[in-house]
Amino acid sequence: MNDVLAYIRQEAEKLFPEAVKLRRDFHRHPELGFKEVRTAKVIADYLRALNLEVAEGVGKTGVVAILNGDHPGKTVALRADMDALPIQEETGLDFASENPGVMHACGHDGHTAMLLLVAKLLSSMKSKLKGRVKFIFQPAEELSHGGATLMCQEGVVDDVDAIFGLHIWPTLDTGYIGVLSGPMMASADYGYVTIKGKAGHGSQPHKAVDACVIAAQSIMALQTVVSRQIDVLEPAVISVGHISGGTAPNVIADEVKFSFTVRTLSKETREKVPKLVERTIKGITESAGASYEFNYDYCLPPVINDDKAVDVVEEVGKQLLGEDKVIKLSKPVMGSEDFSFFQEKVPGAYFFLGGKNEEKGIVPLAHNSLYNFDEDAMLTGISMMASIAYKFLS
Ligand code: NI
């Protein structure tokens, strides 16, 4: 391990108890997306005490801070998400949520605590830093239209050369990281359809236009959009999760609504799916003499990791943690993450940080009322993020 990484590792160990303290404080006081007021204040106060340039109210409740190294160079951004979930905590931990119905059940408390300590650690090595580190504390990751898109609109990464982010990962053991070049997480979008027919008596279908039958045909036909019209080597999922319409068994329904989610791993497929879906629905409704309304909500692009940025993560991981601790994921995850908005602007890498520890009985279930992660993961996370920033700027 080179001297600087050894220094970072050693400092991270010293700072670790403070990370635990901060994490537990955030855990005790969780706040939902765009309501992270207390969280943002704790963050901003902490960063100001480090003498960083701090901006509050970025992307509504986000915080951005800049650390200037003593030497000129590039700008690297490190991002943590801050928000909690609308879940009633049932862990029984002594630092459990004091905010009824709200819980850090995805580890964002840990992400935030780690990034604060990374800011502290890197502040102690300004004389070794070339360029700038931008610390991005992003609100509302859990919302379908969340904080990353607003921060991007406000130009947060316009002056950034690369961005890195992580997520404590429930199925990976503490001490390990997982990463993948190219597509790593899916896009997530929603479609809303209303089929408009003509009401009538159940005994006289020829005098009506049956929206139930047309909706049923449309939903079945959507099953073939992926299997017949998308390249078999391009992952895509269309799942209809909601349908409603009609009033009584003997009344032909004049209107049926259904909605669906679409996941893809490329921008091209993401653009293609809604067009194919609408064409299918249009054809079926027209042939039946009905009409339709189609609304499509583009929520989150896919997380597509930049090869060079991933190289930095892997190199640092191998030196810092050991070759065997850096896991190349065998396949992408069809979950989504709004870190992807930053990656649409600048090259970046997102990686998973192991947070499971069976020996300690910590087997996290994300977005669950019993969620917890192994806090030792934060030692790995702090050293990784600080080393990545240093390495990228060197
Ligand atoms: Ni999360």
Helix-strand blueprint:
Blueprint: H1 3-28, H2 37-49, E1 53-58, E2 62-68, E3 71-81, H3 108-123, E4 130-138, H4 147-153, E5 162-173, E6 177-179, E7 182-185, E8 188-196, E9 200-201, H5 211-229, E10 236-245, E11 251-252, E12 255-264, H6 267-287, E13 291-300, E14 303-305, H7 307-321, E15 326-328, H8 339-345, E16 348-356, H9 377-393
Helix pairs in contact: 1-3, 1-9, 3-9, 5-6, 7-9
The chain binds nickel (II) ion.
Nickel (II) ion binds next to loops.
Overall description:
The chain has 394 residues and is of the alpha/beta class. The protein has 2 domains: 2-186 and 302-393, Aminopeptidase, CATH 3.40.630; 188-300, Alpha-Beta Plaits (2-Layer Sandwich). Helix content is 36%, strand content 28%. The chain is built from 9 helices and 16 strands. The protein has helices spanning 3-28, 37-49, 108-123, 147-153, 211-229, 267-287, 307-321, 339-345, 377-393; strands at 53-58, 62-68, 71-81, 130-138, 162-173, 177-179, 182-185, 188-196, 200-201, 236-245, 251-252, 255-264, 291-300, 303-305, 326-328, 348-356. Strands 1-2-4-3-5-16-6-15 form an 8-stranded mixed β-sheet, with helices on both faces. The protein has a 4-stranded antiparallel β-sheet with strand order 10-12-8-13, covered by helices on one side. Strands 7-14 form a two-stranded antiparallel sheet. A hairpin with a 3-residue loop joins strand 1 and strand 2. The longest helix has 26 residues, at 3-28. It is elongated, with a radius of gyration of 24 Å. The site of nickel (II) ion has 4 residues, from loops. Nickel (II) ion binds next to loops.
